[in-house]
Every structure is written in structure tokens, then in C-alpha cells.
Amino acid sequence: MNYVAAAVEREFPTKRIGAVSPMRSGNHKRTTLVTFADGETVVVQLVSDPESLRLEVRLARAVRKRTSLPVPRVLATGTVAGHGYAIVERAVGDELHERFVSLDTATQMQVARTFGRGLGQLHDAFSFDGYGALDTFGDDSIAEFYADGATDWRSWFATYARDGIDALPPTFDSLRQRLYDAVETASLPASPPAVLYPWDLRPGNALVADDAVSAVLDWGNPLAATPGLGVAKVEHLVADWYVADGSALRRAFREGYEGVRPYPTVERIYRVVAVVRSAVDSAGDVTRPGYPERTGSAAVAFHRVRLASLVNSPSESPPNPQIDTNY
């Protein structure tokens, strides 16, 4: 059964499909561009687990409503033959992941400010009584969200951190015990504020047009965590992922965040875990930072150098290891 065509024909019965083009296939979601005969285009997201897409769609709608982040409008949702689908307006722009390194310095700084401001707005707009995976209740027009997880931050964070360390492949073995030790010896508050933790908020899930972020695309599997962890993760993916020295981008990111709310305390262990949880994807493969993307030993080296600099640093401030970009 062609699930994409079935979903589109159900939601747009008077339109004729002209072309169907696969865009990307993640580990859990398939995304397809559908062009109608009249030239209009929409994006169809398809998953085998309708409940996971329901949560993502509700959060995307809420983020679009509560923040200035450019989130594409959701046109329709539903299920077909047990598969969940969302039909979304097509956003204008190029993949920011591919464009970031070719942007001039001023535009890169503005992009970093946009991510910082957006994260600050997310932290202001979504707060919770606990930590961990989010769930939702209410109908689509007034959806609310809650953390369906732990109420003890230290316990939840330790599990989250150890799971990430466990997932690192053998090429990280020489660092593994130091990472476990850093988690074990970290001094953390028991009940810090809990806010939305958009763990995959990054240029790789964004578009750019006219030298500005034109769309932020992926809100799947959201979590609740303390603000410092979210800052550490997004800052790493914006300031460190594409350039050898991310100091200027980090300052711009912070400026954006502080334009909304005070910058939180970012414990060094949060920066360690931000790198750990960025180094391997959900399929267990080492992620590929930069563009053109590092692969193989170059990708491993990127993550190892960053982790080594963090676990060996006596300071809470993020170190700036000089990572070779000539690969």
C-alpha cells in the first residue's frame, strides 16, 4: 500500500498528485515531498507509531504558537492502515547543515543568536514538574504537556548520562571510565527547574533563506530537563559542530538566550553529556560533524578530542580544543 498517496488523497481529495519525491528517511520517520498538478507542494511525514507523531505534531504546533521559532504549519494529521501521518506546509530555504560553513561570519553569528533566542523562548514557554520523556493531554487546540518520568534530577540525569556512555562504540574505550567517573562525582542539585529539552535542536534540522533561519523542523521525542543541559547540548551543536574555534558563535548564542532570560548555570558535566549524547545516533552509529561531513576516524576524533578536553578541564567554562577542519 502506498501510505503517502493514501494520506494525501484522503486530506486533499480534489487535488491530483503530480510528483512524489522522498526527502529523508530517519530511523523512525519517513519524509516525502508531494507536488500537486497545480504546482503546490506539501511535506508528508509518515511513521509506524502514530502516538509518537501525535506528540511531535502537538509540540510543533505549540512551539509555533508560543515562540518566534519558524515552525512550518501542520495542515493535517491522521492514520492510514496503522501508520501515522502529518502533512505539513513546505518551508522555504536550503539545508542549514549544508550551508552553514559557507555563510559569512556575521550571518553565522546571527544564526547562533537565533538558536540561543529560540532556546530561551522554549525554556520560558514550557516548564514541568519532573524530568524525562514528555507526554500530552487535551485536544489538539489546547494541548498540554507533562513529564512522564522522574522527580529526582540526579537520578534521572545519571541514568541518561550512563546510557549515553554505554552506547559509545569501542573506539571510545580509553575515555569511558573517565566519563563514568565524571558522572559519579558530579555535584548537582536535587530538584532544579525543569523545562523543555529539545535535544535535537540544531542546524541539521533547520533551513536557511535570505541569510536567516527560515524553518526549524524536528520536534520528535521531546524531554524535560534542567535549562543548563539544554543550553550545553544546543550550544555544542551550533558553536562547535562546524568551525574549529566556536568562541564567537558561543558568545552570540549566549547573547540570543540572554535577550529572553538569564543564562543558566551550565555545569561541566552537562557539557560532557551533551557531547556524549551527540556522538552516537539512535542506530548506534557515530555521528558525522561538520560539512562536508567527517566520517570514519575523523568523526571519532572530533568527538574524542572534545570529550577529552572536557573531562580533563578543571574549569566549568567550555574549553576550545583546536580541531583540525582540514579533512
Automatic annotation (TrEMBL):
Organism phylogeny: Archaea, Methanobacteriati, Methanobacteriota, Stenosarchaea group, Halobacteria
Entry superkingdom:
Archaea
The Aminoglycoside phosphotransferase domain is annotated at 20-261
Q: Which UniProt keywords apply?
A: Transferase
Its protein name is Phosphotransferase
**Which GO MF term does the entry hold, naming one?**
transferase activity
What InterPro entries does the database record attribute to this sequence?
AGP_Transferase, Aminoglycoside_PTrfase, Kinase-like_dom_sf
Pfam families in the record, alphabetically? APH
